Amino acid sequence: MKSRTLLIGSSGKIGKLLVPMLLEADIPTVAMVRDREKLENREGLEIVEADLEKDIGHVFEGCDRVIFCAGSGPDTGLDKTFLVDLWGARKAVAEAKKQGVEQFILVSSQGADDPEAGPEKMRPYLIAKHLADEGLIDSGIPYTIVRPGQLTNDKGKGRITTSLPGDPDQQKIPREDVASVLLEALKQKAPLNGIINIWQGEQSIEETLSSL
Ligand SMILES: NC(=O)c1ccc[n+]([C@@H]2O[C@H](COP(=O)([O-])OP(=O)(O)OC[C@H]3O[C@@H](n4cnc5c(N)ncnc54)[C@H](OP(=O)(O)O)[C@@H]3O)[C@@H](O)[C@H]2O)c1
């Protein structure tokens, strides 16, 4: 059977950039959304409705890769951070495990490695991301964790760095480049069982991932 990729968070800002990239790369894609009206119907795209706060088991059927780029966003409270970013991600990992998924790519965040070192008001969010990452690592599913710096809506340049920029103002990355990294991680199946920190930079995405 042909490989199918489940994209969780496909109606989000990164998700909406990634969907056409996946289709362009001829990767059969199942897009999970809470509301199908939020996503344009495209040829070759299967859309499945589900909510991370409810039962999500049915969306994993027949999918051997998962990309999780969902998140509760900055305009909701800590309750949603825990229900979506933490518990939603862990639920998705548990379902992926049952399905025998071969690669789970999770969008985490810069600072999730050491939440207590982050700015005080970010710590609960970073703890949620840390625990979601840990759940994936401990699951035994081959994983790729992507930790971007601050996201921007700038046009992607296709170039990144994996070394923390010294200037805090440079610790950012366009969502379009994050989407390209997710696509490349899927295509190269790499880094497998690895964590990649990414910011805007000068290295080609393809070469960076193939060198890891
Ligand atoms: N903002 C930053 O600077 C930053 C930095 C590093 C990492 N990140 C992470 O990057 C990721 C994606 O960012 P983004 O800008 O693309 O986010 P976004 O535009 O807010 O998209 C979030 C996605 O998650 C979905 N979602 C939220 N709650 C859900 C639920 N209960 N069930 C199913 N889906 C749900 C949303 O669906 P709806 O369309 O239905 O709402 C949407 O598709 C997030 O994990 C975020 O934490 C952000």
Question: Which descriptors apply to this entry?
Answer:
globular; two-stranded parallel sheet; alpha/beta; 22% strand; 9-stranded mixed beta sheet; Rossmann fold; binds NADP nicotinamide-adenine-dinucleotide phosphate
Low-confidence stretches: none
The largest beta-sheet arranges its strands as 3-2-1-4-5-6-10-8-11
Under CATH, the topology can be stated as Rossmann fold
| Number of helical stretches of at least 4 residues | 5
Strand content: 15-25%
Tell me the major beta sheet: 9 strands, mixed
The helix content is: 25-40%
The H-and-E topology, N to C, reads as: EHEEEHEHEEEEHEEH
Which whole number gives the mean pLDDT?
96
How many discrete domains? 1
3D shape: globular
Q: Summary?
A:
It contains five helices and eleven strands. It is an alpha/beta fold and 212 residues long.
